[in-house]
Fold:
Amino acid sequence: MLQASPTASLEAFSTAWARVVDDTIVRGEGACLHAASGKQYLDFTSGIGVTNTGHCHPAVVAAVREQAEKLLFGQMNCVVPETAVELAETLTPIMPEGLDGYFFSNSGAEAVEGAVKLARVVTGKPNIIAFQGGFHGRSAMTMALTSSKTVYRAGYQPLPGGVFFSPFPYTLRYGWDEEQTVDFCLRELEHVLASQTAPSETAAMLLEPVLGEGGYVQAPMRFIAGLREVCDRHGILLIVDEIQSGFGRTGRWWAHSPSGARPDILTLAKGIASGLPMSVIAAPREMMHRWPPGTHGGTYGGGSAIAQAAAVATIRAIQDEGMIDNARERGEQLTARLKEVADRHDCLREIRGPGLMVGCEFTAGAEGKKIAGAVSKHCAEAGLLLLTCGTDGNVVRFIPPLIVTAEQIDHAADLFADAVAAAAK
Structure:
């Protein structure tokens, strides 16, 4: 049989997929990926925050293997797989208080779109307020809710209506201190309610507690608490999108938790099932039970029994192996090492982010984008996979798995330091 060349194989794929490297990966283990070329990569992308337990965690692999021999799929409109019940029972103890009703699906975009539908059904109101810099997906509705970069919307407009944007407290961008920035953003939110979408027609506000594609910017806890107060005062639901920041990524189960503000609806995906497609909408049961049968779903709505089993194994592995504590400790180590690099290079303006969700922002504009791209490329050539983000493309983000070791953090920081030094010349 003729073997296609790697180049010919890659030409079969849509150019809509941008890649960090073109190497073909044949195996993953822990924080590492192994390529057909023989090269090994330290994967600090985690598949964009997906493989929180590392590649091919033994407990997850065992759960998938065992489940594959029993049941691959049970359509939730027809039957209830045992794994669905087990997943609900496993999720409830780690959920914010009162969120004990679930809708399972496949992707983050599906979860966000479903959350918007639920909010509209429950409130009887049409409009949604999202926040500048947020990324919520690539379906039509979630593109309309996304404002991190025009590339995610350009060429697809007009998009669904009923979406309004309010400022996100991006302190470095505004040039103020945190208190001034939060005060400004809360005032502007009230102005949006007074000038664009009245509370009587606003179903929900949608927030990423840490901007993902928007630059790894953490919302101050006072801002999140302020949103809760505004929502309560005006009878608006608060949807928190923890798709990238959840499942221990920030050194806590949920990035919003320190604010003390409970979401009305929580959307989850990415790190939930260690690489299998799975997402969750979580809300109080009373709210979930107000969703009329048949008004939301899909053939694979619910996720497969295999993905559900993987999610249960993922949550248990995170708990049993102390991964959240490790994320917090390794995150402190990583942040300290990266700040040492920033101290030596004026082009590296800020190191920020909780736990193992760390952004490195370079000079604003085209110059910063050029440096960030060069740093990412240099690191990839040296065997460290990193991604860029931010509206200007000037942020390099670190998303290592929660099982990353101190030695791997130090090695990655050394490679990053070399890359910044080379790019800053």
Observations:
- The first helix runs from residue 6 to 10.
- The mean pLDDT is 96.
- The two ends are 49 Å apart (CA to CA).
- The longest strand covers residues 202-207.
